């Protein structure tokens, strides 16, 4: 009997986590600051683009890879995931703030 209670609590928790992740995805679409030309700017400016926008890890990776002459090819593919990750972080913070206000 106790095992059934634990299973139902686990299922409820898993469904709440899934709902929170889905809500974060929706909010992230609204706070995404990337443009349709982010890839072009990353290609043209390389590590300077990422450093300017505060994506320091990606700036260092592209800078190092530029010495192997592949950084400029890789930079455009790193731009959108960087912006998407930032948008998800902002969305999660907004949702956390909203849930704290409701409590």
Task: Report the strand count.
Answer: 0
Structural class: mainly alpha
Percent helix among the residues? over 70%
Question: Which segments are poorly predicted (pLDDT under 50) over 5 or more consecutive residues?
Answer: none
Instruction: Provide the residue-averaged pLDDT.
Output: 80
Q: In one word, what is the shape?
A: elongated
Largest sheet: none
The portion of residues forming beta strands comes to: under 5%
Number of helices: 5
State the main characteristics:
0% strand, mainly alpha, 103 residues
Please, could you describe this protein's structure?
It is a single chain. The radius of gyration is 19 Å and the shape is elongated. The chain has helices spanning 2-31, 38-45, 47-52, 56-66, 71-102. With 103 residues, the protein is mainly α. The longest helix is centred in the last third of the chain and has 32 residues, at 71-102. The mean pLDDT is 80. Helix 2 crosses helix 5 (71-102) and helix 4 (56-66) runs antiparallel to helix 5. 84% of the residues lie in helices and 0% in strands.
């Amino acid at each position: 009997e106790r095992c059934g209670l634990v299973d139902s609590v686990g299922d409820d928790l898993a469904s709440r986590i899934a709902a929170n992740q889905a809500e974060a995805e929706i909010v992230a679409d609204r706070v995404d600051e990337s443009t349709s030309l982010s890839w072009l700017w990353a290609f043209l400016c390389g590590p300077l683009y990422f450093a300017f926008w505060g994506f320091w890890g990606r700036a260092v990776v592209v800078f190092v890879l530029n010495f192997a002459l592949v950084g400029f090819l890789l930079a455009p593919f790193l731009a959108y995931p960087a912006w998407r990750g930032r948008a998800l972080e902002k969305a999660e913070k907004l949702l956390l703030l909203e849930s704290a206000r409701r409590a």
